[in-house]
Amino acid sequence: MRVCFFTGVAPIGHxxxxxxxxxxxxxxWREVVLDTAEKQRVFEAERHEPELIISFLNPYVVPxxxxxxxxxxxxxxxxxxxxxxxxxxxxxxxxxxxxxxxxTLHLMRDTVDCGPICDxxxxxxxxxxxxxxxxELSLHMSVGILxxxxxxxxxxxxxxxxxxxxxxxxxxxxxxxEKCRIDPGIEAAELARRLRAFYHPGYRNRPFVEVHxxxxxxxxxxxxx
Length: 225
What we know:
Radius of gyration: 19 Å
Distance between the termini: 48 Å
Strand content: 15-25%
Helix content: 25-40%
Order of helices and strands: EHEHEHEHEEHHHEE
Largest sheet: 6 strands, mixed
Shape: globular
Mean pLDDT: 94
CATH superfamily of the largest domain: Formyl transferase, N-terminal domain
CATH architecture of the largest domain: 3-Layer(aba) Sandwich
Number of helices: 7
CATH topology of the largest domain: Rossmann fold
Number of strands: 8
CATH class of the largest domain: Alpha Beta
């Protein structure tokens, strides 16, 4: 069986791929990292027809034609509970005061994070441990939920478990950037809340303020509860 494993550049994605392949080397695996527009163009020009798709911490929105080629056998691992679908879920969860690490395995549909849910792992995290620990644990749980269900994914026996997404908590990348945009007149309590939830050292976007056309980016320290 031809399996396309879509992931990103993070080492944990490569780890999950390597373990999956070592456990089921009887299949024809391909790791696909499409983190640039050029890579996406080249891949899409090749007109692949995967029989199974696994999307793991993957920034690339898989076109519907690939989902169709896989006959509905396309699975995504969302690094959060289904209470927070969409982009940057853990940051919005932390902003709401919900410090629950999680991972959700679900079938892929033509809209992001809306397909039937097959498995959910969740674990409370002390808010004092902050967003860094919340993300770290959720990534580890993402590997766990994939490997735990891998046999059932590959043999076609996995089924939806009845859990549903909380659509009201769905956010986009634009929503995240807007929360990172700090107005100089922001109240102290709201500033502390945003820094606690949206500041992560080394993350691709961090809280910032714009003054006379110049952007000043917050770079620590982390803000506790």
